[in-house]
Write a structure and sequence with these properties.
- The chain is mostly beta strands and 201 residues long.
- The protein has a single domain, classed as Electron Transport, Fmn-binding Protein, Chain A (Pnp Oxidase, Chain A).
- It is built from 4 helices and 14 strands.
Amino acid sequence: MFYRPEDGHGLPHNPFNAIVTPRPIAWIATRGSDGSENLAPYSFFNAVAYLPPQVMFASTGKKHDRDGTKDTMANIRDTGVFAVNIVEYAKREAMNFTSGAWEREVDEAALAEIARVNCETIDCPRIVGAPATLECRLTQIIELPGTANLVAFGEVTGIHMRDDCLKDGIFDVTSFQPVARLGYRDFARVTEVFTMPRPGE
């Protein structure tokens, strides 16, 4: 099968995000300039550089009260900081719950009974007990073609790792089984890994 996106795929559901999988999930915590707090998952997310460490995530769609975007991106645009929490399998239901289209004033973490604590290097909350959290300072927001497609890049200024996830100096993802986004309503979890040395190593 071949199709041009502008012509449509003719399938019951869009296959695009089922093709680009698995995608890590950034469970992003932000604090608005008014002190309100927001927690939402984003799967258009990844690390993009080592030195300095940098990440990106994309927000698609918008809310009527957020000037062309959603709560998370609006808060980051206003404050310049955000915290990326890594999602473990044990928190999959809470993560999914916070993906709802809640009103601006709703605190998703409070509704999902997710405990938070302040970050160390930025004025932002993070999830207590997350396997890892990346404290990020915004470097730029880029507007992509289409409606309400925005990408935020951030420099990582602080990294939290849960002690039980470190095994012999290695951050062991199988100890918490990170959740990944697939297509449709599907998810996956990492339960095993394999190693392949690069040529010449």
